[in-house]
Amino acid sequence: MKGIRWPGLIACSVLYGAIYIAVRYPLPADYVGHAQLGLLLFVLPGALAALTSKEAPLTAMVVAIALASPPCLLLMQSDRFNSLGLGQEIAFITSAVFWCGSGTLLVMLWRTLMEIHQQQERKGGL
Fold first, then answer.
1. 3-state SS track over 20-62
2. Model confidence pLDDT, tens digit, residues 73-82
3. Distance between CA 96 and CA 46 in Å, rounded?
4. Is 106 strand, coil or helix?
5. How far is Cα 108 from Cα 112, in angstroms, rounded to an integer?
6. ∠73-7-12 over CA atoms, to 5°?
7. Which residue from 62, 88, 99, 119 lies 20 to 30 Å from 37 (Cα-Cα)?
8. 31-52 pLDDT, tens per residue?
9. What's the pTM value of the predicted model, to 2 decimals?
10. What's the average model confidence in pLDDT over 12-23?
């Protein structure tokens, strides 16, 4: 996997797993059906993936999620956690993937805008 740095990939996976568990556990019954703003925290692992992998940020994000999601899913299906079922967990993972991708794309957009700004400064400075 060219362009992917393993320390960044591992850091992104660990951050994803930590946020996943923090947002999903504990899940009191009175919060079922309410908006979960904790999902916005998943922007952070996506941004981290983009910041640590300049050449292939989306690939790094997808690989990090692919590494971290199965253990999180298995952990949530254990008896220690208040899981709402496999379908609910898969829907949650899908939403987390969306937000991670949004964080990655946000960093990519920021980099592109900075490059355009620098090019315009160079043209204006000559």
1. HHHHHCCCCHHHCCCCCHHHHHHHHHHHHHHHHCCCCHHHHHH
2. 888 777 666 6
3. 10
4. helix
5. 6
6. 35
7. 62
8. 555 656 788 999 999 999 999 9
9. 0.81
10. 91
